Fold this sequence. Notes:
The structure holds two protein chains of two kinds.
Chain A lengths: L1 E9 L6 H12 L12 E7 L5 H15 L5 E9 L2
Antiparallel strand pairs in A: 1-2, 1-3
Chain B lengths: L3 E6 L6 H10 L3 E6 L10 E4 L19 H11 L4 E4 L1 H8 L6 E3 L7 E9 L15 E8 L3 E3 L2 H9 L3 E6 L16 E5 L5 E4 L19 H13 L1
Parallel strand pairs in B: 1-2, 1-3, 3-4, 4-11
Antiparallel strand pairs in B: 5-8, 6-7, 6-9, 9-10, 10-11
Amino acid sequence: MARVVVDVMLKPEILDPQGQAVQRALPRLGFAGIADVRQGKRFELELEGPVDDAALARIREAAETFLANTVIEDFTVRVEETS
Amino acid sequence: MTTRVGVVTFPGSLDDRDAQRAIRLVGAEPVALWHRDKDLHQVDAVVLPGGFSYGDYLRAGAISRFSPVMATIIEQAKLGMPVLGICNGFQVLTESHLLPGAMLRNNHLHFICRDQKLRVENASTAWTTDYQVGQEISVPLKNMDGRYTADARTIDELESEGRVVFRYLAGGPNEVANPNGSINDIAGITNAAGNVVGLMPHPEHAVEPLIGTGKTDGLGFFTSVLKQLVSS
């Protein structure tokens, strides 16, 4: 079975207060030297059939219309081989 | 004939009954619409109420946007039917692209719940003719994802065409006007035709003197649409 991973991130110019809250907490917990944190979403899609061009095109369409809101978010689609 | 105003109930809607009550108070007939139903039951206008449709999973309003009832509402809204989206309803309208822009988590990351002062910026939409430009009203605000955003070109377009309908104002000297980091203090906007309006605060909670803000500042939305429908 094949897995396709869709990563969704807020666009770089959009303020990410959740990422900032995490970044502010890190030094308090002893993790120094982290200049910036941005928080995103990862979707793991397990496909029933093969990962061919048609399947990937459908997933890109799903990502663009539903998984990500392209007004505020960017996304990437990649295939992850599973056993 | 009585004017029929539909109120959609999605799984997770909270303010559908309040919206129905507000509609009844101004003398129109509220019609309960179910999210899985494609049929609008001959309503003349639609209110998308506040709440957390589909639990706000994925993004606020993102899943409801693909419900069967929304397919019909999007179609009718484009033909001119008045649609009002309140809070979660506003989020559904941006996800549906009936209104431009998008809604983000509040900049301070807190759920906010307070009486919110607003300035009316546009009194010519289907839902605001009973207000006056510059009028200040107070209605409750309660949300987690109320930070309105859009790209610079869209904001310029909204501002230059007078499509910002409401802006946040401070309620007192110790209150920050903008409750969530929304661009240009935008609390509500309209589409180019003026029939679709979305706003984060809740006018349906300010329609009777005994509850909410103690004022009835929210009634104007419902009297406005009623007049527009009766005269059309």
